[in-house]
């Protein structure tokens, strides 16, 4: 351990209000280690994850990512790897209770705002209920904050005022431009990583890696967190204001043109859904989606020098580099696109 790893760890724990943290090389790797840690701590095997949730390319979470959810999420994934993943319905606490009945889960991992499904925020009561359910069943609750961790002041766990047992973070925790991730949580859980306290390797959860905790990444991550702490009163209200403006503007455009579409999002994250029902989870975001129209919007924006990811999911992330003028231009382009479609 070196000076910058210590400073980084103190900054991350301060940001997320957690006891301990370990670095990793990516968000995928962070989730991989978090799942193994949860299994080691609880002595259970099964993992609950949500339909449409993306937690990186780790085999142990690569199920139910893309619609239809009953199909393998990738070629090369044997059932022996994915059979212990229990798929859950997002924003449906009763549905979660039903699906975990009879299952002995080590953990439930959840994105406070679902990314790949199109920036669908969790309802506050859903996350609160999930916390209570996990406490009732002795299940560890993991927040995947790879997207949300630094989009909200002190993360989405602070925004929702719901405390998970573990939090995972991705590249932003290393300054954004270097391979990085983090697993942080309560001391009694994180100590399962500790080779000093737990001498027998078969009794502890492995953690390591050639470039894990390297000085360049740790210093970049520390510097970013200090910037966000020092300028939080400037950055986050500005991003939230831009987000509100763009989401309100989009809703007005669709209403004014009597066009069926829905806007989801929170803070500086937003998405456009061409669906026949309001998206509240992965299933409702996909089963009535107009995929052709979604792709046409992507092509229209690309032809007008607006680039976003991806052609199949119209979801967007604002930054402090964006301006009111950028928002106005985006809204004008969306309205132009909608009027062209209405006129056909």
Key words describing this protein structure:
single chain, 344 residues, alpha/beta, Aspartate Aminotransferase, domain 2, Aspartate Aminotransferase, domain 1, 2 domains, seven-stranded mixed β-sheet, three-stranded antiparallel β-sheet, 12 strands
Report what the structure shows:
With 344 residues, this protein is an alpha/beta fold. Strand 2 (46-50), helix 3 (79-82) and strand 3 (85-88) form a beta-alpha-beta unit. It has two domains: 3-230, Aspartate Aminotransferase, domain 2 (3-Layer(aba) Sandwich); 232-342, Alpha-Beta Complex (Aspartate Aminotransferase, domain 1). It has helices at 3-16, 27-42, 79-82, 93-100, 124-137, 156-160, 187-190, 215-230, 232-256, 282-286, 291-303, 324-342; strands spanning 20-24, 46-50, 85-88, 105-110, 113-114, 120-121, 140-144, 166-169, 181-185, 262-266, 269-273, 314-317. The chain has a seven-stranded mixed β-sheet with strand order 1-9-8-7-4-2-3, with helices on both faces. The protein is built from twelve helices and twelve strands. Helix 1 (3-16) packs parallel to helix 8 (215-230) and helix 9 runs parallel beside helix 12 (324-342).
Which secondary-structure class do the elements indicate? alpha/beta
Shape: globular
Order of helices and strands: HEHEHEHEEEHEHEEHHHEEHHEH
Range of strand content: 15-25%
Individual helix count = 12
Largest sheet: 7 strands, mixed
CATH level 3 topology of the largest domain = Aspartate Aminotransferase, domain 2
Count of beta strands: 12
What is the count of distinct domains? 2
Instruction: From the alpha carbons, calculate the radius of gyration and give it in angstroms.
Output: 21 Å
Helix content: 40-55%
CATH superfamily grouping of the largest domain:
Type I PLP-dependent aspartate aminotransferase-like (Major domain)
Q: Could you report the average pLDDT, rounded to the nearest whole number?
A: 97
Named at the architecture level, the CATH assignment of the largest domain is 3-Layer(aba) Sandwich
**Straight-line N-to-C gap:** 63 Å
CATH class label of the largest domain: Alpha Beta
Which residue ranges are poorly predicted, with pLDDT under 50 across at least 5 consecutive positions? none
Q: In what order do the strands lie side by side in the largest sheet? A: 1-9-8-7-4-2-3
């Amino acid at each position: 351990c070196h000076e910058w790893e210590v400073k980084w760890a103190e900054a991350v724990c301060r940001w997320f209000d957690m006891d301990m943290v370990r670095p990793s090389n990516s968000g995928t790797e962070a989730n991989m280690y978090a799942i193994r840690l949860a299994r080691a701590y609880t002595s259970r095997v099964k993992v609950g994850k949500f339909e449409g949730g993306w937690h990186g390319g780790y085999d142990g979470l690569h199920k139910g990512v893309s619609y239809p959810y009953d199909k393998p999420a990738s070629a090369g994934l044997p059932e022996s790897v994915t059979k212990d993943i229990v798929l859950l319905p997002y924003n449906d606490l009763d549905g979660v209770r039903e699906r975990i009945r009879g299952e002995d889960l080590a953990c439930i991992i959840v994105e406070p705002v679902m990314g790949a499904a199109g920036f669908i925020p969790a309802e506050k009561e859903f996350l609160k209920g999930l916390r209570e359910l996990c406490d009732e069943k002795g299940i560890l609750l993991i927040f995947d904050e790879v997207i949300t961790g630094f989009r909200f002041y002190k993360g989405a766990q602070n925004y929702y005022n719901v405390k998970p047992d573990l939090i995972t973070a991705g590249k932003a925790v290393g300054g954004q431009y270097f391979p990085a991730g983090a697993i942080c949580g309560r001391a009694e859980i994180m100590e399962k990583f500790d080779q000093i306290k737990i001498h027998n390797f078969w009794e502890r959860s492995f953690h390591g890696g050639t470039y894990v905790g390297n000085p360049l990444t740790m210093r970049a991550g520390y510097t970013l967190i200090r910037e966000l702490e020092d300028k939080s009163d400037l950055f986050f209200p500005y991003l939230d204001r831009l987000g509100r403006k763009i989401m309100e503007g989009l809703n007005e455009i669709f209403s004014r043109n009597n066009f069926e579409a829905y806007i989801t999002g929170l803070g500086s994250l937003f998405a456009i859904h061409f669906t026949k029902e309001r998206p509240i989870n992965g299933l409702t975001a996909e089963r009535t989606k107009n995929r052709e129209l979604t792709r046409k919007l992507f092509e229209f924006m690309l032809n007008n020098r607006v680039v976003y990811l991806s052609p199949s999911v119209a979801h967007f992330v604002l930054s402090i580099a964006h301006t009111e003028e950028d928002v106005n231009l985006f809204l004008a382009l969306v309205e132009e696109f909608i009027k062209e479609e209405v006129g056909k």
